[in-house]
Amino acid sequence: MQACGFSWQRAFQSAIHENDATSVEGKIGLARLAILERLVSPASMDRKEEDALFEALDALRAFDWQRLSPGVSVYELHQWPI
After folding, report:
1. Which residues, at least 6 apart from 2, have a Cβ–Cβ distance to it below 8 Å?
2. How far is CA 22 from CA 1, 11, 56, in A?
3. Could you report the per-residue pLDDT of 14-56, keeping only the tens digit for each?
4. How large is the angle between the packed helices 47-68 and 7-16, nearest 10 degrees?
5. What pLDDT, in 10s, does the model give residues 4-14?
6. Neighbours of 38 (CB within 10 A)
7. By C-alpha distance, which of 18, 19, 12 is closest to 52?
8. Which residue ranges make up each domain of the chain?
9. For the chain, which terminal residue's Cβ has fewer other Cβ atoms within 10 angstroms, N or C?
10. What is the DSSP letter of 6?
């Protein structure tokens, strides 16, 4: 993923690096919202950014799942059909 050049990237990084358990859920929600707003934005985007947006959504889903399922590794998450 690129450096934090877009607002959705800053929101994503903030969620991933949050250490406060009471704040992380809200930051994950804000990051998802920022990503989805960018996906539906009328502003043009190249294929590289579009791929990064979907990768970020996948990463947030895995991060959230791992956070809520302490006994499950990220590797195991990728083995389950979506």
Report:
1. 9, 48, 49, 52
2. 27, 16, 22
3. 999 998 888 999 999 999 999 999 999 988 999 999 999 999 9
4. 20
5. 557 899 999 99
6. 20
7. 12
8. 7-79
9. C
10. S
